[in-house]
Automatic annotation (TrEMBL):
<dbReference type="GO" id="GO:0003700">
    <property type="term" value="F:DNA-binding transcription factor activity"/>
</dbReference>
<dbReference type="GO" id="GO:0045892">
    <property type="term" value="P:negative regulation of DNA-templated transcription"/>
</dbReference>
<dbReference type="InterPro" id="IPR036390">
    <property type="entry name" value="WH_DNA-bd_sf"/>
</dbReference>
<keyword id="KW-0804">Transcription</keyword>
<dbReference type="InterPro" id="IPR005471">
    <property type="entry name" value="Tscrpt_reg_IclR_N"/>
</dbReference>
<dbReference type="InterPro" id="IPR050707">
    <property type="entry name" value="HTH_MetabolicPath_Reg"/>
</dbReference>
<keyword id="KW-0805">Transcription regulation</keyword>
<dbReference type="Pfam" id="PF01614">
    <property type="entry name" value="IclR_C"/>
</dbReference>
<dbReference type="GO" id="GO:0003677">
    <property type="term" value="F:DNA binding"/>
</dbReference>
<dbReference type="InterPro" id="IPR029016">
    <property type="entry name" value="GAF-like_dom_sf"/>
</dbReference>
<dbReference type="InterPro" id="IPR036388">
    <property type="entry name" value="WH-like_DNA-bd_sf"/>
</dbReference>
<protein>
    <submittedName>
        <fullName>IclR family transcriptional regulator</fullName>
    </submittedName>
</protein>
<dbReference type="Pfam" id="PF09339">
    <property type="entry name" value="HTH_IclR"/>
</dbReference>
<keyword id="KW-0238">DNA-binding</keyword>
<feature type="domain" description="IclR-ED">
    <location>
        <begin position="63"/>
        <end position="252"/>
    </location>
</feature>
<feature type="domain" description="HTH iclR-type">
    <location>
        <begin position="9"/>
        <end position="69"/>
    </location>
</feature>
<dbReference type="InterPro" id="IPR014757">
    <property type="entry name" value="Tscrpt_reg_IclR_C"/>
</dbReference>
Length: 260
């Protein structure tokens, strides 16, 4: 249907409004979308279903919707996931060769992290790479590293209704998360033990863009049964070196990264 007076295609305008809302919010229900657009729920549902079919939205188990991979393909201003993946891949490979455990590259997507690249360990007992997957940032080592680099007001903005439930999470509230991020910021790395899932230990360090803000993170994921506390310093050193190298590469290859 076309609004002749305004020269606007109404259905397209509504879909674009939903895209903007999904980009800025953690989730959106059909009921909330219908209220926002001033349409009946069935119309809102069809619009969200169309966006989902094209990868611009993803439906969660509670039937709410969040930004899909096509919408979060832009990590920061003018930097695409493909650009970030290509620029970071050689460093990710060197990190893997040094630690010989599963290493992954992730970015922040709302209150979640999205895994955009990874290389698995050659060990028989190893953590599987989660490329393309999402999980709450607050329980991930890399997610904590990125969140710790943000102002607390921005962390709160990304969690307007509190922390999304996650079965194995140990942090249960925003106040607990704030304390966790203070520690993460001081240590200069994120850590999780059996928080993303039982049996997995992770260490993560954030990667900075050209303006000094965190645009991504590298992590090392190790089966908890194989993790030894004395190995932590080795992982942190390797991750820090890799993150610094990736940051330099981003500044050279993508000088516009994270600049307004």
């Amino acid at each position: 249907m076309r609004n002749e007076d305004a020269g606007i295609v109404t259905s397209v305008d509504r879909a674009l409004q939903l895209l903007l809302h999904l980009r800025e919010s953690d989730s959106l229900t059909v009921k909330a979308a219908s209220r926002r657009l001033g349409v009946v729920p069935s119309t809102a549902y069809r619009l969200l279903a169309t966006l989902t079919s094209r990868g611009f939205a993803v439906q969660e188990s509670d039937r709410s919707y969040r930004a899909g991979p096509e919408l979060v393909r832009r990590v920061v201003d003018q930097v695409s996931l493909d650009e970030l993946r290509r620029a970071s891949r050689p460093t990710l490979q060197r990190l893997h060769d040094e630690v010989d455990d599963t290493v992954q590259l992730m970015v922040l997507a709302g209150s979640d992290i999205q895994f955009i690249d990874g290389i698995e360990s050659s060990a028989a007992l190893r953590v599987a790479a989660r490329i393309g997957g999402y999980m709450p940032a607050y329980c991930s080592a890399g997610g904590k590293a990125i969140l710790a680099a943000l102002p607390w007001a921005e962390v709160e903005r990304r969690h307007p209704t509190g922390l999304a439930p996650w079965g194995s999470a140990k942090v249960q509230s925003l106040s607990e998360l704030q304390n966790e991020l203070v520690h993460t910021r001081s240590a200069r790395y994120g850590f999780n033990s059996d928080e993303t899932e039982v049996g997995v230990t992770g260490v993560g360090v954030s990667i900075q863009g050209s303006a000094g803000s965190a645009v991504a993170a590298f992590t090392v994921a190790v089966p908890t049964a194989r993790f030894r506390q004395p190995d932590l310093s080795h992982y942190v050193r390797a991750l820090t070196t890799a993150a610094q190298s990736a940051s330099r590469t981003l500044r050279r290859a993508l000088p516009h990264a994270d600049r307004p």
